[in-house]
Design goal:
Structural class of chain A: mainly alpha
Largest sheet of chain A: 2 strands, antiparallel
Helix content of chain A: 40-55%
Shape of chain B: elongated
Helix content of chain B: 40-55%
Mean pLDDT of chain B: 69
Protein name (chain A): Pre-mRNA-splicing factor 38
Number of helices of chain B: 6
Shape of chain A: globular
GO cellular component, one term (chain A): spliceosomal complex
Low-confidence stretches of chain A: 217-277
Radius of gyration of chain A: 21 Å
Number of domains of chain A: 2
Subcellular location (chain A): Nucleus
Strand content of chain B: under 5%
Organism (chain A): Apodospora peruviana
Largest interface: A-B, 35 and 30 residues
Bound molecules: zinc ion
Largest sheet of chain B: 2 strands, antiparallel
Strand order of the largest sheet of chain B: 1-2
Oligomer: heterodimer
Keywords (chain A): mRNA processing, mRNA splicing, Nucleus, Spliceosome
Order of helices and strands of chain A: EHHHHEEHHHHEEHEEHHHH
Order of helices and strands of chain B: EEHHEEHHEHH
Structural class of chain B: mainly alpha
Chain lengths: ~280, ~280
């Protein structure tokens, strides 16, 4: 299928093109088979999909998210009903939006509508190359907004940064198997990725600034005032995390913990650290 | 006038009679062969016809009708053939597109489909035979079909058959990043407006509530005062009555007889009265 001006209103042709003829996603996967067959069938059979995803284009997706998505999740309940979130993700797989459109969802739209950002993040994880997944997703580890999530166990509280972390570390999210990405440090070794730069700015500048602020002759060695946290190693992220305990940087501290446990904001923030640095 | 416009009419007295009908509105393939006559603007009235012309009835032309019928027959024959061919090829036949179709668009979120259709409704058995025609259930005007429930109806409106019947191609415009940006902006603005309205209505509600509360309090105060007044009055009355009886003031006329008798020397009845 060459690049057409139009989308098909329904998914028939999209699903018929599984196999070799359909266009592949940037990560080399066939978008029609990224979700599992049983899940796909549940989506296509759902009333929400038939009604709200028919003839929808990239702009209408925003309407639908704003109107219908107030929780994330895959299939839920005893009948394994697909969430509107999952249905719209499936629709995105069919629409194959450009990077420019994805950026609108993520940034301009994502600031305003958090579930639009969540949807774009999920879609990126499913279709983009691993180096792009890291660079596109990591900035949103700073997004602390709450999300609701519906799963087999009912509704639970979620956070955007935890969701991003799940997408980067787990192998199954929202009833969808995530394809296996290479680890971040491998991509760094291959020079496909720059070491992650915190949105707080350059680490050296930050440290200099800190020294000046701490100043008064006393030279701090990075972990003096903080006793919590594991005392292992002193990567740049480590040092920073100790200094900025209350800041966003602390997520880089390699502390364990299941990111699914939501005990409180502080525990939660620390819990998402077990990721390739 | 675009070349796709069709013209029905004929030349009379050197004047062109034009009915300009866009093809997307009227689908009459048989008239496509009719000659297209350009009309000069000065001959036209607001109705696309020269003013004062009463010649329009002459459009009914037997020859033209015969030609139309012939064309229609040919078209029907063509369609039958195409249907048969599609069937032989194991495919479903759809009316061929002729370029006049509009793009298919998503359901308007503000015009909620569910409200239109209602919830799943079962129709008593035997209410209608098959889907053809209008019967109890969800009726599709364009296709003249009736469906038992809204799910079937919805599936039908998503079908190629239906889209062709309402003149849609089943193709959807691909949005650009700019369009997506604009949509986000629009939706955000709308949301802010709703919030503002909500705040206003909330404030209004609060104001109304306050007024009502005030009235209610006023009413209570009034009642309380009234009750107090009553109590006070009753108390005063009671005191007054007591003091009046204390002074032994009799109610007028009550003991007049006794008084009279006393004045006349009688002490009462039944003692010395019988003489
Ligand atoms: Zn129909």
């Amino acid at each position: 299928m060459s690049k057409s001006e139009y989308h098909r209103a329904d998914e028939r042709r999209f699903l018929d093109e599984r196999g070799s003829s359909g266009p592949l996603a940037p990560n080399g996967l066939n978008p029609a088979t990224i979700m599992e067959k049983a899940v796909r069938e549940r989506i296509v059979d759902s009333y929400f999909y038939k009604e709200q995803c028919f003839a929808v284009n990239e702009a209408d997706i925003v309407d639908r998210v704003v109107e219908h998505v107030d929780f994330i999740g895959g299939v839920y309940g005893t009948v394994q009903k697909p969430t509107p979130f999952l249905c719209l993700a499936f629709k995105l797989l069919q629409l194959a939006p450009s990077d420019a459109i994805i950026d609108e969802y993520l940034s301009f739209g994502g600031e305003k509508f958090k579930y639009l950002r969540a949807l774009a993040l999920f879609y990126i994880r499913l279709t983009r190359q691993d180096k792009d997944v890291y660079t596109l997703l990591e900035p949103f580890l700073e997004d602390r907004r709450k999300l609701r999530r519906k799963g087999r166990a009912g509704t639970s509280l979620m956070y955007m940064d935890v969701f991003v972390d799940d997408l980067l570390t787990k192998d199954r999210v929202c009833s969808t198997s995530l394809w296996k990405m290479r680890k971040r440090d491998i991509l760094e070794d291959l020079e496909l990725l720059e070491p992650r730069v915190s949105p707080l700015g350059d680490i050296e500048d930050l440290l200099d600034e800190m020294d000046e602020v701490d100043g008064n002759g006393e030279v701090r060695n990075g972990d003096g005032n903080h006793t919590d946290g594991d005392d292992d190693g002193s990567s740049e992220g480590e040092v920073r995390s100790r200094r900025w305990r209350k800041s966003s940087a602390d997520r880089l501290s390699p502390q364990g913990g299941d990111s699914m446990d939501i005990d409180g904001p502080d525990d939660r923030r620390r819990s998402s650290g077990e990721r390739s640095p | 006038m675009s070349p796709s416009s069709i013209v029905i009419g004929r030349i009379a007295l050197g004047q062109a009679h034009i009915i300009d009908v866009p093809q997307s509105i009227v689908q009459t393939p048989t008239t496509q062969s009719a000659s297209v006559v350009k009309m000069s603007a000065k001959d036209s009235s607001a109705y696309g016809q020269a003013a004062g012309d009463t010649d329009f009835r002459k459009k009914y032309d037997l020859d033209e009708y015969a030609a139309k019928a012939k064309d229609r027959e040919a078209a029907e024959k063509e369609e039958r053939k195409a249907r048969w061919e599609a069937k032989m090829a194991g495919k479903k036949y759809y009316k061929p597109m002729d370029g006049s179709e509009t793009l298919t668009t998503a359901r308007n979120a503000t015009q909620d489909f569910r409200k239109l259709v209602g919830t799943t409704t079962l129709v008593p058995a035997g209410a209608g035979v098959g889907k053809r025609g209008r019967s109890a259930g969800f009726y599709c005007e364009a296709c003249d079909l009736t469906f038992k429930d809204n799910l079937q109806y919805l599936e039908h409106t998503n079908s190629m058959q239906h889209m062709r019947n309402i003149g849609q191609s089943g193709e959807v415009h691909k949005a650009t990043a700019e369009e997506v940006h604009a949509r986000i902006e629009l939706l955000w603005e709308r949301l802010q407006e709703q919030k503002r309205d909500q705040v206003i209505s909330l404030q209004e509600r609060l104001a109304v509530r306050k007024e009502e509360d005030e009235k209610e309090r006023e009413e209570k105060r009034r009642k309380r005062k009234e009750a107090e007044e009553k109590r006070k009055l009753a108390k005063e009355e009671a005191v007054k009555v007591k003091t009046e009886y204390g002074e032994d003031v009799r109610i007028e006329g009550e003991h007049d007889e006794d008084d009279m008798m006393a004045a006349m020397g009688f002490a009462g009845f039944g003692t010395t009265s019988k003489k």
